[in-house]
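Take a look at the protein record below with the fold in mind.
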Amino acid sequence: MTSPQNKIIRQIAPEKPQRDRCLRCNRGLATCFCGFARPFDTHTRFVLLMHPKEFKRQTTGTGRLTHVALRNSEIIMGCDFSGDLRLSRLLSDPRYYPVLLFPGPGAINLSENEALPLPCAKKLLVFLIDGTWATAKRILKLNENLSALPKIRFSPAAPSRFRFKRQPAAHCVSTIEAAYYILCLLESQGLEKLNNQHATLIEALDSLVDFQVRFLASASRK
């Protein structure tokens, strides 16, 4: 049975829909960021495991923007997924080879051209934990079904461009940047053919940051 605190978000909406709020990004219409994204298809499926605190944040998270940009993605909100029916179905789906983005010993470093042991008949399913590093570690500790998955990692080519969230280390990046780097590296391994469409993820992030800077500057002058 699906845990009551976990929700599958197919079209992100607040629990009580409001006319002044976007039903996709859950932000106020004045600050809706959906227009920054240019949605595109990927062979890889992405599942964003969004911590409830991250779900409520309006300016300091990029998980929703990532979901809007990636057509082949979904969000599952929660912390303890041990009884989550949707997650269980994904993990047992014979069409997919599931992996978890999480650095650590034994994680396959895509930046070092370490090949994924992806069976020919399966599609890659990447789980991204959308939350702080502390909450990500807690989620992993609570969920043996996730901690048992093969893990992948990468080495970012540059510091995070997301200025609204202080990263705990130089190699840490936002969720949308993580999706970008993964797609870059999967394409280099011949697992994606994107024709540079994934570059729009970084463009969307830059647009979001610029918009938020202008919005805050305007608000401070009032």
Notes: Residues 4-17 have pLDDT under 50 and may be disordered. Residues 199-221 form the longest helix (23 residues). The radius of gyration is 17 Å. The chain has seven helices and seven strands.
